[in-house]
Amino acid sequence: MTESDAPLLTPPAADEWGDDEYAAVGALFGVPGPEVPRAGSGHPSDPLNFDILGVLVRHPRLARKFLGFNGFLLQQGELPVRLRELVILRLAYVRRSAFFWGEHHRVATRAGVPEADIARIAGGAAEFDGTDRLVLEATDEMLADGRIGPATWQRLVGELGTHQAMEVVFVFGTYAMLATACDTWRLAPPPGSSRLPDAAPHPTAEGEQ
To answer: Which Pfam families match (predicted)?
Structure first.
C-alpha cells in the first residue's frame, strides 16, 4: 500500500475499546454493550473483524444513533433482502465504491442472491425484469437526479406498498452516505472480497475520436 492509498481513519486497537464503543456496536447487533464480543476475542462478531464498525465508533455517540437506525433497516425492515442488496450493489457499482461492493457482494450471496444476478447489476435495470427492474430503475433515478420521479414512485408503491417503497429511499440514502464516508476514509475491502467490476465505458459521441 502506498502512502496515497493509506486509510485516513482507522479503527481503534483492541485496548482502546471501552463502554461507549461497545454500546455503539450493540445498537447495531440489538444487544446491550456488555453483550458485544470483546475486541480481539476472535469471536465471529468480534468488532475488530469489521473495519467499518471501528471507524464509526471513533465517534461513539454518533455511531450509537446511526447504527441503531442501520440495524433497523438490516434486521427489521420490510423490504426483502434481495431488493435491498440490489439497491446497495447498484449504488456501489455506479459510485465506484470498492469497499461496499466487496462487503455487500458477500452479504447478498449469503442471503441467496445468485452470482449471475449480481454480475448483471453492472448492466443496470435493463438486465432485470419485474420488481427487480423497477427497484433498480428507482435506484438509477436517485443516482442521476437525487430523487425518484413521480411515475416511478407510484409504480413502487403499487408494487411494494408504501412501507417498502419508503425503505428503498432510506436504504439508498443510508448507503450513499456510508459510501461517501468510507471512500473518504479510504477503507479497503476485506481480504478475499469480490472485486468491483470495471466501469462500463461511456458511449462515444458521433464523430468523436
So the answer is: CMD (PF02627)
